[in-house]
Design goal:
Helix content: 25-40%
Number of strands: 17
Oligomer: single chain
Largest sheet: 8 strands, mixed
Distance between the termini: 58 Å
Bound molecules: zinc ion
Length: 399
């Protein structure tokens, strides 16, 4: 059974998350995106857990609302600032871990993503004892990813490094990045949205197509037992779109090569700090050129609303016009994954005119130019015209 799963989102009880992150909205929006299975997010939070209990229970770990399936998930920050994603087998196991973690956390009742005064190794042991599926969230993110803070899995997880079930790639990386590090070759890679709002340019902006023998915790557990073949595809933003892709200044967003940044001692000419980008960090850690044969394909795509906005010349993906075109496409074709990946270009053209299908087929063929993000600023797609203007600009600046 092939399903599209987005296993990392947050509820309105996590800091910096939209009040609209409620199950009702998530069900409606998830279906429009073409997602079959969503993580509940934040299941350690007592108030969110109460809402989970109000959903229809399908299995010990699977709940549903209006047809959308949810699996018990939560994120925890350890004392080294690293974020970890947990998938739970049942609500009673969530409660068991909640009780244990409460002793090490001052905000477990106030923040959906609690911080615990434990090392990654201590948390990994507790996750293992609870029977959770467990791995690092957005592994390459400079501030809260393991590779932002550690040089290896064992530096973060000690003797439990071998018990990690998966590695979440995060928005600034794809499987090609992870494959450059040999200790990751046996792990299943996940691409999840980490959505903080249910809008279509956030929820499901990254997802995994999984071949599950059963839509359950046990189905996922089997998949993580080193069987990459059961991940049909990872899908999500091209890494260059991520806001920490290249090394760049946190204040003025000027980009620097690794060599330049080192020579400048990570100080920008404006006086700001240059933040090391994911691309450079991966090169630093890279220890192999061998690519594992079983890595599933990574489909680069960006949210349909952003494609529409770009095509109609709007800077925001949430304008009325963008929404109208988006809704028209979803109503006629079914869901966003269908529009982006499967439906015929002719049909999209019939519904939405010329420019949008052009950009969609460029994505399908991997033929899109992107101005990379860095220093906290997202990257952006370059349409042909802008590309030429950019080249002209860089020629001028050579003089
Ligand atoms: Zn996180
Ligand atoms: Zn600067």
């Amino acid at each position: 059974m092939n399903i599209n799963a987005d296993l990392h989102i947050h509820s309105k009880y996590s800091s910096g998350v939209s009040e609209k992150m409620e199950f009702k909205t998530l069900s409606v929006q998830g279906e429009k995106k073409g997602i079959d299975l969503l993580g509940t997010g934040d299941c350690l939070h007592p108030r969110w857990r109460r809402k989970i209990k109000d959903l229809d229970k399908e299995r010990e770990s699977i709940f549903s609302k209006r047809g959308m399936k949810f699996i018990l998930t939560g994120e925890v920050e350890t004392k080294d600032r690293v974020h970890h994603l947990l998938i739970f087998p049942s609500l009673s196991k969530v409660e068991e871990l909640y009780e244990r973690l409460s002793r090490f956390s001052s905000n477990i009742n106030s923040d959906g993503r609690p911080r615990v005064e434990l090392s990654g190794e201590e948390l990994a042991l507790m996750a293992k004892e609870t029977g959770c599926l467990f791995g690092p969230s957005h592994a390459f993110t400079p501030y809260t990813g393991i590779y932002g803070n550690h040089d290896s899995l064992s530096s973060a997880y000690g003797k439990y490094a071998k018990d990690i079930h998966f590695l979440e790639l995060g928005l600034s990386a794809d499987s090609g990045y992870a494959d450059k590090i040999s200790e990751l070759h046996d792990l299943v890679y996940l691409s999840n949205s980490d959505a903080h709002s249910p809008f279509p340019h956030r929820l499901g902006r990254e997802f995994n197509t999984l071949d599950l023998h059963e839509l359950s915790f046990e189905g996922l557990e089997k998949l993580f037992q080193g069987k990459k073949g059961e991940v049909i595809c990872n899908a999500g933003l091209p890494p260059e779109e991520g806001k920490y892709n290249e090394s760049a200044c946190r204040s003025c967003y000027t980009h620097y090569s690794f060599k330049e940044a080192v020579a400048r001692d990570w100080r920008c000419s404006c006086g700001g700090v240059i933040k090391k980008g994911v691309k450079d960090r991966v090169e630093e850690l890279s220890d192999t050129k061998k690519i594992p044969e079983d890595t599933p394909p990574y489909q680069h795509l960006i949210p349909l609303q952003e494609i529409i906005a770009k095509s109609v010349g709007h800077s925001s993906p949430t304008t009325k016009k963008v929404n109208q075109i988006w809704q028209r496409l979803i109503d006629s074709i079914g869901d966003e994954v269908d529009v982006l990946c499967d439906s015929s270009i002719e049909e999209i053209e019939r519904i939405a005119g010329e420019k949008i299908p052009d950009l969609i087929s460029d994505f399908r063929e991997g033929d899109v130019d992107i101005r990379p993000g860095g220093g906290g600023e997202y990257g952006s797609i370059l349409l042909e015209k802008e590309n030429e203007a950019d080249e002209r600009q860089s020629c001028l600046s050579d003089f």
